[in-house]
Structure formats: C-alpha cells, structure tokens
Amino acid sequence: MKYCAASFLIMLLISCSSSVKEEINDTINELSLLESVSNEISYNDDYNETQNNESENSQFEGVSATEGSSAPSNCSKLIGNGPDLEWIKSVEGSVEEAHAHFIFTTNDNGYIQVGETGFLDDNSAKLLIVKTNSEGELIWKKEFGVSGHNLGNSVIEVNDGYIVTGSINKNSTIIKLDKENGTEIWLTTIDNGGTDAIEHLVEAQNGFIGVGYIDAVDENNTFYTEGKGYMTFFDLDGNKTSGKLLDVKMSHAYRISKINNDLIISGLTPGADDYALMKTNLDGEKQWIKSFGGESNDHCFAMDIANDNSIYLSGHTISGTENWDTYTMKIDQDGNKLWEKKRGNPRGFNPLYIHDEVWDLKATPDGGCIIVAGTGDEYSEYSENCEGSIDNSNTWHVYLIKYSAEGEIQWDKTYYRSDGGDWAGEAIDLTTDGGAIVAVDNSVFGFLKIAPF
C-alpha cells in the first residue's frame, strides 16, 4: 500500500490513502474475478523507457483473484442506497507496488490509469500508464524512466493520442502516446526549477497549458510538496513555449479547466492551509484568486466544472472536525462560494482515529457531483471492530459520496475487499453507462467499476 513520509506537522496528518473495506449486514454481494496479464518488456535508450506490452512472447503476470462486496454494516451511518460494484480488475507494474493518481474514460469506452510503480523515497519509482478495454482487460501498459524519481499525474485524450503529465528525474514531463498500442509519439522533459512536475493540463488552440509546481521542498511527497505553483505553455508537439509562476497564494496547482476563453486552476495555499482557486485568461493573466477553508488545514486535491460552469472543489479538512473529513464545496464563476459540506466516518467507528481523504471528484449530468475518498485509520494504538461483522477500523475502504446540485447527500457508500485487504479510492471518472470507474490503491492499479446510479 501507499504511505507518505512527511517532513512537517501537516504532512504527518496527511495519510496517503491506503485502501478501504465496509462490512455487510444480512445481504452479501460478492464478485469473484481472476485476471491474467501478458507482457513483453523492452528498453528504449533514448528516454530510459521500460515498455510492457502484450505480445506472442508474453509472460504471465499473476494477479490474485479478489472478491468485492459492498453494503452497510451494523455500525455504519450511510445515507441512501448507493450503487453496487460490478467488477474490479488489477494490473501490476514492474516494480514493487503501484499507485495511481488519475483515471480517465477514453472515447472508445475503455479506461486509462496513470501513476507510478515503485517508490520515490527509495528511488525505485517509474511512471506507469495502463490502458484497458471497457471490461477492464489489459490492452497495453507502458513505463517511463529508469528507477528513480518519476511521477505519473494525469492524462487527457486528443484526436490522435493521449497526453500524459508527470515528471521524469525530478523534471516536468509531458508524453504523447499512440492510442492503439501506447507507443511514444513524443516526450518532453523540462527543468522548470528545482524538483518540479506537471500535475494536469488542458488542450488550447495552439498547444497545451499545464499546471503543477516547481522548487519542491518535500520532494518525495506526491501530494503537497511545499513548492511554488507554476504554469507551462506547450506547442502541439510538446515543446515549451513559455512558463510563469502563479500567484503566491497558489503554492501547488493541481487541476486546470478551460471555460470559454478563461482558465480555472485549483490547488493549495502555502503551508497547505486552505483551498486555492484562481481564474486567468488563456495567457495566464490573473483575473482573481480566492482561498477557502477554516481555522485549521484544508487540502484541496479535486476540481471539476459542472454543466452550468459552476466549480466543484473537494479534498479533506481538519477545520472543525475531529479528524480528517471530506470537504466539498460549490463555487460560482466569480469565485463566490455557494455551499460547502463536510462528511466523514461513514462506518461508525471512533471519529478521533478515522481519516476520510478525498483525492478526486467528477461533476455529474444532473448538476451535482460525486467524490472519491479513502476511509480508515492509521493509528497503531487504535483498532475497533464492528459488533456482528468482520469489519475493522484499520482496514481501508473506497468511499463515494454523491451530492445534488444543492449540496444534499443523495447517497454515500463504501466498497471493500471481502477477504480483509485494503482498498482506497484515488481517482474517479464517469462511464458511458451512467456508472463510474474508480482507480483503487490496492498495491497495484485497481480498476473498480461502479454500477449506474
């Protein structure tokens, strides 16, 4: 599982989501699945790239059968009737463990997931990209960077490929891949300053606009690096044309979206104290910047734009809570907060020990949004069982919350391994059938399909 080592008090409180488990009462929905992955490994000297592809000389990549179940336990405080899971499938990387940061539903109704295999703190990390079909079956996977400090952060789809963001050898990178087989079309790596990375990007008229950070202080932290927010402009071939620092109130930019001729950028303020939200024109010239939060730390990792161009933000907070709780808000186009909601401890354990950590959200067609989190505890001195079930607080679960446009919880639900293993939700996207696909941290790249809702 994935855990972060932090260098200051805030980072001690951030738990890099492990995984997630929720027990059942009377009815158990169990899904069994077994996946085999075939791969061939080759090496590309030009970019220190390890490529893993299906081939006639492929080798079997064992992924053990996993059962998934979801339903309330005797202790839980869940609201409404959330959808069941349909299936979960997993793909390994070439190094110990794999942890995703982004998942995307592609135009062919398949899925692509981006993250790392290996770890930053021991210099074993490689950038990992996995493409599956609509049933979660592997089509191709690719790794970039020799073992070291390499990050995979996000992906977008363009007409003739996928554009992946991250960093290679502590420098910002974007990579264009062929859709059919994942072959590299081009790769750009830029030293924007110190340890730096591109977190996310959008396609613009003459290229791409990416946001992220430079001059990271806590360089091995994949969530908040204590750096400076930065914007990079690229042409259509991935060449950097210019770059600029964002406002000093934006110390780490996480997400960027384009609304007409404006850009909306979200992230964290210095010290990870509050949510940061910024509006610029397409040249990156600031129109306004706002911060949102309470008296303690508020960490913003998720943003999406609703169909009316209002802005959803989410993450987690310890402002006015007993421990880290989910923290979601809706903002209008002028930066005015319309509502905010906090929600945590859905399984009914001691809230002093439970972390509910949001890493992604998506706006939904009904004008609301759905957030994905991990919920569980990481305190060795505490462990609590749910009477009448096998659920335990230190087993992590995927946690979804569906909000209406007015901020009411329509349902929330957790998803977990029935054999007691850890799951945590790292990213989410909507699927064409009205459901969702979740990137699960289960020591590999987990693809968790949620039924239509």
In short:
By secondary structure, the chain is mainly beta.
Explain what you see:
The two termini are 29 Å apart. The chain has one helix and 31 strands. Strand 17 (252-259) and strand 18 (262-268) form a beta hairpin. 1% of the residues lie in helices and 53% in strands. The chain is mainly β. Strands 5-6-7-8-2-1-3-28-27-26-25 form an eleven-stranded antiparallel beta sheet, with no helix packed on it. A four-stranded antiparallel beta sheet has the order 4-31-30-29, with no helix packed on it. A four-stranded antiparallel beta sheet has the order 9-10-11-12, with no helix packed on it. The protein is globular and about 60 Å long. It has a single domain, classed as TolB, C-terminal domain (Neuraminidase, 6 Propeller).
Arithmetic mean pLDDT:
87
Number of helices: 1
CATH second-level architecture: 6 Propeller
How many domains, in number, for the residues? Answer: 1
